[in-house]
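Exam revision sheet. Question 4 asks you to relate a sequence to its structure. Input first:
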Amino acid sequence: MTRSESKYFNTARRMDEAFLELMEQKDFEYITVKEICERAGVSRSTFYLHYETMGDLLNECVEQMNQQFLAYFDETASEFRQSIRTAPLEQLFLITPEYLTPYLTYISEHRAVFRVVLKSPQALHTDRTYTALFSDILNEILARHAVPEADRGYMLTFYINGIMGIVRRWLLSDCAESVEHIASVIMTVIRR
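Answer key, structure tokens:
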């Protein structure tokens, strides 16, 4: 990476951070480009060099958050992937506290951004994010449970939409219930 590329990405990172800080203080609709620029120490023209709209900045922040979240699971998922072939069938489930707790904690810690995205769910890219996270693992688990390959996509869609429905409702309550409680609700709904 050249020095100018590094400077470009550093500037974008500062604007992302400024945006996320402002999101903790006020609703998305009330955040202005001027506030972001002042907090990030950049000019208005620099903002527009990086983003056409505030929505573009929101999308970039969400994408970055998704990547951070997936990076966490990449570390733990590799161990789990290795055990799929030999683990007893009764242990082959992703809907466990081990996987739900970090996911729900991450959402709770970033709830301001996730609440904004609820108004525009396509910005969250949940299908793409969870497909990337679960497709290999879930396919292997479903194969071990002898689920026909043609049915696996439907099952993945069910899991994603069901879990996201619970998470949406939780976000609307400003994550009033504990992470543990929501994990318990999800595990109750999606029984083994």
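Marking note for examiners. The two ends are 48 Å apart (CA to CA).
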